Amino acid sequence: MKHEAEAEAMVLPLELVEKILVWLPVKSLIRFRCVSKQWLSLISDSRFAILHYDTADAAPTNKNTRLLYLSSEVPEARCVDLEASIHGDYALQLPLSCRHFCLSILGSCRGFILLRIHVHGAPLLLWNPVTGSHRSVPYPVADPDVPCWGGLGYDESCDDYLVVVGWGGIGHKWKPQWEYFSVRTNFWKEIECGHLPPHLVTVDCALFCNGVLYWLAVKDMEVNFVIVAFDLAGKHLSMVSFPTSGGSRRLLKLFAGCLGISYLNFTEDQKTEIWVMKELSWTRLNVVLPYAHVIHPLCFTKGELVGTKNNELVKVSDKGVSVKSLRISCRDRDNDSKMVMFTESLLSLPDEFGGTGEEQRK
How far apart are the C-alpha atoms of 154 and 163, rounded to whole Å? Predict the structure, then answer.
């Protein structure tokens, strides 16, 4: 009896266990569901999943941030832990319904990836790479050959995920159309875009930041670039001005939780410069990236810049000195549609009845 009493005294209260577990990586939590029925119930609870995601998101360095890319050698998705040494990657199992088809990535949000399956009549796919849960979204465009772009965002005001898709005609019949799909209500709705340029077309997958989806886009036949923004709460489109720069080869990315843009600047010794938007104004970062590196920046981690160079993932210091590299099998010319930054999470998608649900894992 004495030993039983001592053992019971050593058991931590569930409230304290929860405060410890919310700081752990998702992969560890998935393993720890086998510890006991109590831990299984706690870690599987949707409230805990939200608390875990919010805790990691608010931390100065989100250790659950990963890079996911679609391999060009075999039909699979591969993942890289950018906080680690990036000396290795690992495979993720794609949903069975899309393993044998050409895929592209339209965006990510709160641990979910939006996949497009390039097959006539195929739906879009919302997929959590960590838990394996996924949900199909009916594709709104009848003709799969029509140029299409999209994005995924989260509307905190109504706890809903929105899939936003835009497309246009061909040649002289070009007329952009935009719609959004509410995951909670399971319906598509048209977005008013009459004030946007008539020849607008996006050239990158969307970035979600602080309740807004952003695309880099071409607004006219002169190939003048703009940033298109879709406010998820207000359900309206607008355009955002660029920072003043003489650069070209623009790329939209998220840097330290802010919308960022990188330029290859030919007016300043051919250096790549990075700007971030803070409080609706652009600020240039003090980062040295000589043109010789030809690096496409992705993000910052532990004071180092992570980017791609040909078919390599590289880390460089803020002085432009190479630190680490990893050869990846992503040789598609349009790499932006084949790779995406995402945050690992245990979150589930809301269903049309107001709860959260998952399709069968396959």
Answer: 9
DSSP-derived 3-state class of residue 255: strand
Residue 239 near residue 193 (C-beta atoms within 8 A): no
> Cβ distance 253 to 276 under 8 Å?
no
129: number of Cβ within 10 Å:
23
Q: Could you identify the residue written with the tokens 């250790």?
A: 63
Contact indicator for 232, 155 with CB cutoff of 8 Å: yes
Q: Is 90 exceeded by the pLDDT of residue 125?
A: yes
Q: Report residue 256 as tokens.
A: 């330290």
Helix, coil or strand: residue 54: helix
Give 33-38's long-range contacts (Cβ < 8 A, gap of 24+): 38/14
Radius of gyration of the chain (CA): 22
Please tell me the distance from the alpha carbon of residue 294 to that of residue 316, in angstroms, as a whole number.
12
Report whether 285 contacts 255 (CB < 8 A): yes
Rounded to an integer, the average pLDDT of 65-78 is: 80
Place of tokens 């560890």: 28
Plot region of 201 (φ>0 → left; ψ -120 to 50 → alpha; else → beta): beta
The CA distance from 232 to 284, in Å, is 27
Question: pTM for the complete prediction?
Answer: 0.84
Helix (DSSP H) and strand (DSSP E) numbers for the chain: 5, 27
β-bridge mates for residue 255, sequence order: 258
Separation between Cα atoms, residue 330 and residue 333, nearest integer Å: 9
Q: How far is CA 100 from the centre of its chain?
A: 23
Q: Sign of torsion, CA 239 297 77 104?
A: positive
Q: How far is CA 6 from the centre of its chain?
A: 48
**What are the residues facing 281 on neighbouring strands?**
278
Q: Is the per-residue pLDDT at 221 higher than 90?
A: no
Residue 81, token pair as written in the block: 């832990």
More confident residue, 150 or 293: 150
pLDDT at residue 36 tops 70: yes
In 3D space, the residue among 330, 297, 302, 329 whose CA is nearest the CA of residue 314 turns out to be 297
The mean pLDDT of 215-235, rounded to a whole number, is 82
User: Taking a C-beta distance cutoff of 8 angstroms, is the pair 271, 249 a contact?
Assistant: no
